[in-house]
Design a protein that fits this description.
- Two copies of one chain form a homodimer.
- Chain A has twelve helices and 13 strands.
- Chain A has about 400 residues and is α/β, with parallel strands linked by helices.
- In chain A, the strands form three sheets. In chain A, strands 3-2-1-4-5-10-11 form a seven-stranded mixed β-sheet, sandwiched between helices. In chain A, strands 7-8-6-9 form a four-stranded parallel β-sheet, sandwiched between helices.
- In chain A, helix 1 runs antiparallel to helix 3 and helix 1 packs across helix 11.
- The longest helix of chain A has 19 residues.
- The radius of gyration of chain A is 23 Å and the shape is elongated.
- The termini of chain A are far apart.
- At the A-B interface, helix 3, helix 6, helix 9, strand 9 and helix 10 of A face helix 3, helix 6, helix 9, strand 9 and helix 10 of B.
Chain lengths: ~400, ~400
């Protein structure tokens, strides 16, 4: 099934701490396969392919140290883009086919999220329709963990580990003064609450933050929210709230967008945590601190999950193996076999089932009443942030004075 | 000179990643001294002393693991306060003396910043005036590095290391797309730019971010700032700007406070980075992203500097040693002997020279013209973020594709 030809690989969408691990895994495996000739990286995704902005990766990745360095580098070493191909094939498709044929590319790997899988779907269909055996395989990537057909996505575990570890430190920081306080931590994930839920991994004996978790899957109700905050304040002085950037009211409008500041065109100032912070300041009046984790949660390689990096490299390798096997129009996937011990195997899914689909948190894993998540979700998340080299996985048992 | 008596130790002011290391160092050393009987920790600084909210620390710190755990715990294990004693002795002073005598406290250590040294000054003077041999010694602490009479402050190195490492990751994150971008990172330090300057430690071969450093020591000039941004944009697409939260115009008003948003009482939304972000959006119009490092820069124990933690523990020990030696009304200090190899020794300073004084960055270490810092400042900062166990000290050489 394997054909001789060159390989092209590119990255697309938003950064993660693990996307270069997938690049490294795919290239390292491809280097050992005699069917594969040149190994090109395209700069800035499809945008760079159209400009034939290719880099020969073999000379750049010669030693194990080169690969290790690539694995530990956050964001896209090849750069990224946000380009979408047109719905119907047009002259761009023709140009891409012409470029692939001229460079004798028979294997194309695109590392990206839902939008990037749309390009995999369209290109693989177009190449097949033209009768060309050019294999196009997607490698999943997103901190949001919102891709269908895969148990989870590379990049998510590292962002989740960053969020849990940071949450634990914020809990220490917020508890030092005697007056009551409310700390709101805004977490990425426009439509899926996976990352916001990961804040709960900060909990361990003696540490119960975050006390409220607001996810986009559950419509936000202001009264219920204020009632819950007051309820918890009766029990404890310092509350930490994990707030998804994407929470919405029942009518679908974003909490973030409700800010009075919008009229001035300062939308970037009015995140969900700031909006709710203003509400709490007005209604409850104690010390309120909104914190946006911002891009730090997606690029903090120094807190990446070893499990995530290892899996990201493996799925890159598996994608190459599927392509050599004749697959095209598919995305490599994780299939979880068990939580404890945690075991996964690798598979693939038809990319049309993945492209443009958003996989959100199942509502049965959310405790909407208590604005919290259920144990099933904790069990799902826990293995993904593990670092075998650090038994505490970035969540040390802090010293506590009673 | 040593007298028999009990010891009291407390923490005050804002959190750092190293303040518990000083607590651990002081207690560990005191435990071995037979002059010292009970070792009490006061909860929430002077506030807790007035309520006799004391904890017996000996049973809590029994094993080396207990101490290690305390050293690695961010923020104040004993809690903190923002309380100031009145300028003239009043009934609170009398109450404090009464409490010290009743608990037979002869040694009191207060770990804190400029404001906390004010309490050391006032209490030591009051006790002496009353003819009581109660030794009051300050242990410096602040991420801001703005204390007089000491080369630097415990807690600063860890915050500086966090800022440098995070800056390096943000530089990767911001460079992935082809359109130009401006990323503004807001860094703590209301009057002193030490921490903002530490952003420059992210620079290493192949990585030149941050490209602009705006410090509170230099009056902010809007036109000059815009000119410099345009100048740099002619050379590179993605600029990273390190912005102190405390930058001010020539007339002394804060840039942060200039925000149009203030009228709504949303002052927490209008940090310097957001204000300048809006300005750049309006004047230059490319993609602008403001990032506030917020409390993460002061509590991120996971990125603490080993040098900082070691020194913080040692200075705690030295403070106890000075008190046993008969000193009171002093603060333990670092005296730098050389940058390379980096060596320091420990000393002490009269606390009246420290209390309420702010030590800002010498202007001759700042390049006001290029909105940057000079090599002298880099040389001063570099040793403070070193981790002997990690030769790259949190600043790995990332993989770069030309």
């Amino acid at each position: 099934m394997a054909i001789r030809g060159n390989m092209l690989i590119a990255q697309s969408g938003g950064p993660t701490a693990a996307i270069n691990a997938s690049l490294a895994g795919a290239v390292e495996f491809a280097m050992e396969r005699e069917e594969i000739g040149q190994i090109y990286g395209a700069k800035n995704g499809v945008e760079g392919i159209l400009q034939e902005h290719f880099v020969d990766l073999r000379p750049l990745l010669q030693t194990p140290e080169d690969f290790t360095r690539l694995v530990k580098t956050p964001a896209m070493a090849l750069g990224s883009c946000r380009k979408r191909l047109s719905e119907q094939p047009n002259e761009e498709y023709e140009k891409l086919l012409d470029i692939f044929l001229r460079w004798e590319i028979r294997y194309f790997f695109y590392i990206g999220g839902n939008d990037s899988m749309d390009a995999v779907k369209k290109l693989s269909a177009y190449f097949s329709a033209k009768g060309e055996d050019i294999r196009v395989v997607g490698i999943p990537k997103t901190i949001d963990n919102d891709m269908a057909c895969t148990d989870h996505t590379p990049g998510f575990g590292s962002a989740a580990r960053y969020i849990a570890a940071t949450m634990a430190e914020i809990a220490c920081d917020s508890a030092i003064y005697t007056p009551a306080s409310l700390t709101l931590v805004e977490i990425m994930g426009r439509n899926a609450g996976w990352l916001t839920a990961a804040a709960a991994l900060a909990r361990r004996p003696g540490w119960d933050a975050p006390h409220i978790i607001c996810m986009p899957e559950i419509p936000f109700e202001e009264e219920k929210f204020l009632r819950r905050v007051r309820e918890l304040q009766a029990e404890k002085k310092h509350l930490i709230l994990a707030i998804s950037e994407g929470i919405r009211y029942k009518d679908g409008t974003y909490v973030a967008a409700q800010s009075k500041l919008d009229a001035f065109g300062h939308r970037q100032l009015s995140g969900a945590a700031h909006t709710l912070g203003s509400l709490l300041l007005e209604e409850i009046g104690c010390k309120v601190r909104p914190i946006e984790l911002n891009v730090l949660q997606r690029c903090s390689a120094h807190l990446s999950s070893e499990t995530d990096l290892r899996e990201a490299a493996c799925i890159g390798k598996e994608a190459v193996s599927f392509a050599l096997d004749g697959k095209t129009g598919v995305m490599a996937t994780f299939i979880r076999e068990s939580n404890n011990p945690y075991t996964i195997r690798y598979g693939y899914a038809e990319v049309e089932k993945v492209a443009n689909v958003e996989h959100t948190v199942p509502v049965e894993w959310i405790d909407a009443e208590h604005m919290d998540i259920r144990q099933e979700l904790i069990d799902y998340l826990t293995p993904l942030i593990q670092n075998p080299s650090d038994p505490e996985s970035g969540l040390p048992t802090y010293f506590q004075i009673p």
